[in-house]
Specification:
It is a single chain. By secondary structure, the chain is mainly alpha-helical. It folds into four domains: 1-81 and 258-344, HUPs (Rossmann fold, 3-Layer(aba) Sandwich), CATH 3.40.50.620; 102-257, Rossmann fold; 346-402, Orthogonal Bundle (Helicase, Ruva Protein, domain 3); 410-503, Orthogonal Bundle (Arc Repressor Mutant, subunit A). The protein has helices at 24-39, 58-71, 102-114, 125-137, 154-162, 211-221, 237-247, 277-282, 287-296, 310-316, 331-343, 347-360, 366-371, 373-377, 380-383, 393-401, 410-418, 422-434, 442-456, 460-472, 477-487, 490-503, and strands spanning 11-14, 43-46, 78-79, 89-90, 118-121, 168-171, 180-184, 188-192, 201-203, 226-230, 253-257, 260-261, 327-328. Strands 5-6-9 form a three-stranded antiparallel beta sheet. It has a two-stranded parallel ribbon with strand order 1-2. Helix 18 packs antiparallel against helix 19 (442-456). The longest helix has 16 residues, at 24-39. It is elongated, with a radius of gyration of 32 Å. The model is unreliable at 1-6, 404-408 and 472-504 (pLDDT under 50). The chain binds one RNA strand of 75 nucleotides through helix 4, strand 6, strand 8, strand 9 and helix 6.
Length: 504
RNA sequence: GGCUCCAUCGUCUAGCGGUUAGGACAGCACCCUUUCAAGGUGCAGAUACGGGUUCGAUUCCCGUUGGAGCUGCCA
């Protein structure tokens, strides 16, 4: 029913409203649009649907733009990131802020007035609200606008307009149209009876366009070929199709994505925890993980592969494999995927991601990292196997920066204490290391540790392992040595290692 | 109420008339390890229900049930 030209490249758009941060549901929509454009060598347009003056802000626009950039979803046309407070756009179909496109809407409305598909309505919002309420009170179903202004005499209507009477413009739904039908790229053929469609408002009495009007005008002007969006817009689609038709514009292909739900099967919201991309960024999730995970909510690569790069996504992404059912956001799987990416970092990559968090936590400076790069490189083996998010790192390695103090990890100690014979070892260890004259002297520590096994009648191996747990919290054995090494006690550690291997 | 969408393990999904219904997360067990992880092996776990169509339905059709969305001068 459209796009008969097979050689033309698709043009898709992501059109968020700057009424809040970038929601993960919106992010997934953006990802699919982006991947579709990249897969087909098409164009990805970013448009800001800021027609709601009440809730739209410049700050939110910038937050969304930054979130898009962070995710690596580069757009070919659209607004520029803020470089001084001015809202600027780049691309041949701009501007890309709806508030800057009023001329297009005025022209479109004029066209619809001329061909009789739009009419002025003088009912006030208050009157309509009252009617809605009355119907509700009476227990009668409100069937939408009663079309009381639809058949006003054109001359009379014009006179009222000329007299300055406030009015909005409504779509004159062609009642003889027959059902409005379209082929949804993910759901197949959808059909809506014409008589349930409302004569909805195109242009408000203040002259601004409504979403259902502005969106269609822009999609038509911008040559959008595929509209990939959330399925909360399914019901809007027949109305919008009527506007496309009234405008004489070719119909794009629609693809409606199911919602992302919270664990309780309800729309994902604040009470489920983080909902915006910004929040996940702050919590230490990697952008490539967010893209990977979100892409997985409704799309699968051959059904077997869960970890894939953005390039792989673009290479394989097609609309016909998008699943129709809603997906529940699974925070545990997100954590898992993030930890997988972290584990696969090279030492250099790991350090690169780690440093900002160490600095933010006040544990070190950039200069120190540069001066002692090898030392910092040594942190990775200590934590990379069990860290899920980089934000956890400062707490896990703080002891490395806090000087030579003996601290016991309570959870580990509890477990160790539960083991047969461990309690005595631990107590002896604690006592030995707490001795005043020890003062964290390498030789003294070594002597204290070496003296323990015979004193307790335990195998050296056992005592050393308990020591590791007690000293370094959750460190596994090699890391303890490395950590002591990191603290700058190369000599003592060499001797400790020698002592242990000799003892075993 | 009206219109519309959705329905495979707890979760994300593969499947596009014939499969022992596959994978991943989570769970459990064992191995490794005197902690925690990571890793290895294994176990358990699903076609919502009822009718059709068909030689044969997870797959196609209808209904029921359950869930969701829209029903604004919000988007």
């Amino acid at each position: 029913m459209n796009q008969s030209t097979t050689d033309s490249k698709p043009r898709v758009r992501f059109a968020p409203s700057p009424t809040g941060m970038l929601h993960v549901g919106g992010a997934r929509t953006a990802i699919y649009n982006w991947a579709f454009a990249r897969h087909n060598g098409g164009t990805f347009v970013l448009r800001i649907d800021d027609t709601d003056p009440e809730r739209s802000t410049k700050e939110n626009t910038q937050i969304i733009l930054r979130a898009m950039s962070w995710l690596g979803l580069d757009w070919d046309e659209g607004p520029c990131l803020d470089d001084g407070g001015q809202e600027r756009s780049e691309g041949d179909y701009g501007p890309y802020f709806q508030t800057q496109r009023s001329d297009f809407y005025a022209q479109a409305l004029q066209k619809m007035r001329d061909n009789g598909s739009a009419y002025p309505c003088f009912c006030t919002p208050e009157e309509l609200t009252a009617k809605r309420e009355a119907a509700k009170q009476a227990g009668v179903a409100y069937e939408g606008y009663d079309r009381s202004c639809r058949n006003l005499d054109p001359a009379v209507a014009q006179a009222r307009i000329d007299a300055g009477e406030p009015h909005c413009w409504r779509l004159k739904v062609p009642l003889d149209h027959g059902p409005v039908e379209f082929d949804d790229a993910v759901r197949g053929r959808l059909s809506f009876p014409i008589d349930v469609l409302d004569d909805f408002v195109l242009v408000r009495s203040d002259g601004t366009p409504t979403y259902n009007f502005a969106s269609v005008v822009d999609d038509a002007c911008m040559g959008i070929t595929h509209i990939i969006r959330g399925d909360d817009h399914i019901s809007n689609t027949p109305k919008q199709i009527l506007v496309f038709e009234a405008l004489g514009a070719p119909l794009p292909t629609f693809a409606h994505l199911s919602m992302i739900w919270g664990p309780d099967g309800k729309k994902l919201s604040k009470r489920h925890g983080a909902t915006s991309v910004e929040e996940y960024k702050a919590q230490g999730y990697l952008p490539e993980v967010m893209v990977n995970y979100l892409a997985l909510l409704g799309w699968a690569l051959a059904g077997e592969t869960t970890k894939f790069s953005k390039d792989t996504l673009c290479e394989h992404f097609t609309l016909d494999h998008i699943s129709k059912n809603p997906a529940i956001f699974d925070a545990e799987k997100l954590d898992w995927l993030n930890s997988v990416y972290i584990r696969e970092f090279s030492p250099d990559e790991f350090l690169e991601h780690l440093v900002p968090h160490l600095i933010a936590a006040g544990l070190c400076t950039q200069q120190e990292v540069e001066d002692k790069r090898d030392w910092f490189l040594g942190i990775r083996p200590l934590i990379f196997e069990r860290i899920k998010r980089m934000t956890e790192a400062p707490a896990m390695v703080a002891y490395l920066f806090s000087g030579p103090t003996v601290s016991l990890d309570e959870a580990s100690v509890a477990k160790v204490l539960a083991k047969e014979g461990s309690k005595a070892i631990l107590e002896a260890l604690e006592q030995a290391l707490a001795a005043d004259d020890l003062e964290w002297d390498a030789a003294a520590i070594e002597a204290a540790l070496r003296a323990l096994p015979p004193a307790l009648g335990q195998k050296p191996k056992t005592v050393f392992q308990v020591a590791r747990v007690a000293l370094c919290g959750n460190m596994v054995s090699p890391p303890l040595f490395e950590s002591i090494h990191l603290i700058g006690r190369e000599d003592s550690i060499a001797r400790l290692k020698a002592a242990e291997s000799a003892a075993m």
